[in-house]
Design brief:
This protein has 558 residues and is an alpha/beta fold. It folds into 3 domains: 303 residues, P-loop containing nucleotide triphosphate hydrolases (Rossmann fold); 120 residues, Domain 2, N(10)-formyltetrahydrofolate synthetase, CATH 3.30.1510.10; 83 residues, Formyltetrahydrofolate synthetase, domain 3 (Roll). The chain contains 19 helices and 24 strands. The strands form 6 sheets. Strands 1, 2, 3, 4, 5, 6, 13, 14, 15, 16, 17 and 18 form a 12-stranded mixed beta sheet that branches. Strand 1 and strand 2 form a beta hairpin. Helix 4 packs across helix 17, helix 7 packs antiparallel against helix 10 and helix 14 packs parallel to helix 15.
Length: 558
């Protein structure tokens, strides 16, 4: 464990009792449900819709990232520290990490350096058990489906060949993608093809993050579309009377979690859908909780702005009637070199021409944010390999577009390193904020919504539909789901559906392979290219470098 590793910095922090963090939000000790000294659940009655409109929501997103990510969570936490440093009451609201990336290639998601949320180990591991509850609720429905198919009485006549619902586990395990269940004789069920998704890709996760109350959660769970009967009638979770039992498993998971930053500012962490295959943002309830208790709320959406931010704005903000006042676009010089054509081995080598060429990617994201009637601020997440020439180029080029670009040094300096970024955000909020405008109306047809996203956000010239996708469109129309939002599933590595097309590709088409239905979440999921809901581990998983001492001290977690 190095002296300045993320985990060593986090473990060196003497944390404040969670009751004192709650007090900073005006919440009494009796109103929180404590999970030990440093974690707590916030009850839903603390959400006050009357206060939400008066407070300020800041969305942190990024340019198209490199595989290692560009530090959105670190910038989000650092910005929150910076806002509090300049006397703005601010809370950061984040997603919960998934165990798959923690033990895989990307690592944890609790920030980094001196811009972290703590207790870091707990947050990155089992935390308060929310993911476990989501997994169990999902798999309860799977068990009920197969039990009903097996049953001689109370049988819904479900055609096993049409079952769309899969089991989930919060681990990268490629061997579970496609499996056969029900083998071993008639007492073990009806044999059929099945598979596992990773828990953040579960529709139950999406539903938890879209729900506005326990009653709404239960209704959405009942609306989960399972498949068809042998006479081609649709089957929903409510037909199995599953929604109440599933909601019981989620009765605590629906409540947002309260922790703290390294500088003892409040942090709310809740939900964790992936952004390349789900909506990629924390729960509506967590965001509204933050806005009920703080003047400024900083939140983030996964991957680049073409994925997480697009979904945050078109799906979450439109449904929950949120009004983001400013968008922070995180950029790294490393990523700009990448989009300028630099190979991985020279990502950390200064190269102004590569940054100049790669800026086209960032410029497209700036254009896209403005399409929502929101002004962006660019945060240049600082790395030691950045040259002054490269940084100055980005600042000057952004200025020519009327955008403030600020170097963010939250990793190295915490709030002291983000005060300038905080001031730039406050300037937009107080002097340039406008009323957020979604890109499309949910009442438009599914096909129209797909075309708008593909052409306006990605820059595609054409959308092509495979035969399966065309059949799926007919099914969506037949089921009456045309009014749903669109949650695009595509690679995070490119504006296009081809991860090799870096920078700002032009004159390309995207292909919709199929369209999944998430009726409980109230969106459909067009699949662009080959998207996997169950990742695999790398050849050298991060888990190999982790250890735990006889005293229970963890090392190697990042």
């Amino acid at each position: 464990m190095t002296q300045f590793s993320d985990i060593s910095i986090a473990q060196a922090k003497k944390m404040n009792h969670i009751k004192n963090i709650a007090k900073k939000l005006g919440v009494n000790e009796d109103d929180i449900e404590m999970y030990g000294k440093y974690k707590a659940k916030l009850p839903l009655h603390l959400i006050d819709d009357a206060k939400i409109a008066d407070n300020n929501l800041i969305l942190v997103t990024a340019l198209t990232p490199t595989p290692a990510g560009e530090g959105k969570t670190t910038v989000s936490i650092g910005l929150t520290e910076g806002l509090n440093k300049i006397s703005k009451q601010a809370t950061v609201v984040l997603r919960e990490p998934s165990l798959g990336p923690v033990f895989g290639i990307k690592g944890g998601a609790a920030g980094g350096g001196y811009s972290q949320v703590v207790p870091m180990e707990d947050i990155n591991l089992h935390f308060t058990g929310d993911f476990n509850a989501i997994e169990k609720a999902n798999n309860l429905l799977s068990a009920l489906i197969d039990n009903n198919i097996q049953s001689k009485t109370n049988n819904l006549n479900i055609d096993p060949r049409t079952v769309l619902w899969k089991r989930v586990i919060d681990m990268n395990d490629r061997s579970l993608r496609d499996i056969t269940i029900g083998l071993g004789g008639t007492s073990n069920g009806v044999p059929r093809q099945d598979g596992f998704n990773i828990t953040p890709a579960s529709e139950v996760m999406a539903i938890l993050c879209m729900a506005t109350s326990l009653a709404n959660l239960k209704e959405r769970l009942g609306n989960i579309f399972i498949g068809f009967t042998f006479d081609n009638s649709p089957v929903f979770a409510r037909d199995l009377k599953a929604e109440n039992a599933m909601a019981i498993l989620l009765k605590d998971a629906i409540k947002p979690n309260l922790v703290q930053t390294l500088e003892e500012n409040p942090a709310i962490i809740h939900g964790g859908p992936f952004a390349n295959i789900a909506q990629g943002t924390n729960s509506i309830l967590a965001t509204k909780m933050g806005l009920s208790l703080s003047n400024y709320v900083v939140t983030e959406a996964g991957f680049g702005a073409d994925l997480g931010a697009e979904k945050f704005l078109n799906i979450k903000s439109q449904f929950a009637n949120l009004n983001p006042k400013c968008v922070v676009l995180v950029a790294t010089i490393r990523a700009l070199r990448h989009h300028g054509g630099a190979k991985k081995e020279v990502y950390n080598t200064p190269d102004v021409p590569k940054v100049t060429l790669g800026f086209k990617n960032l410029e497209k994201h700036i254009e896209n944010i403005r399409k929502f009637n929101i002004e962006p601020v660019v945060a240049i997440n600082s790395f030691i390999s950045d040259s002054k020439e490269e940084v100055n180029y980005v600042i000057e080029k952004c200025a020519s577009l009327g955008v403030k670009a600020v170097v963010s040094k939250g990793w190295a300096k915490g709030g002291e390193g983000t005060k300038e970024l905080a001031a730039a955000v406050v300037d937009v909020v107080e002097n340039r904020a406008t009323v957020f405008k979604p890109l499309y109306n949910w009442k438009a047809s599914i096909r129209d919504k797909i075309e708008i996203i593909a052409k306006e956000i990605y820059g595609a010239s054409k959308v092509v539909y495979d035969n399966k996708a065309l059949l799926n469109l007919k099914r969506i129309d037949r089921l009456g789901f045309n009014h749903f939002a669109v949650c695009m599933a595509k690679t995070q590595k490119s504006f296009s559906d081809n991860d090799k097309l870096i920078g700002r590709p032009e004159n390309f088409s995207i292909t919709v392979r199929e369209i999944e239905i998430a009726a409980g979440a109230q969106f459909v999921i067009p699949i662009l290219g080959k998207m996997m809901r169950m990742p695999g581990l790398p050849s050298v998983p991060a888990s190999e470098n982790m250890s735990i001492s006889d005293e229970g001290i963890i090392a190697g977690l990042s």
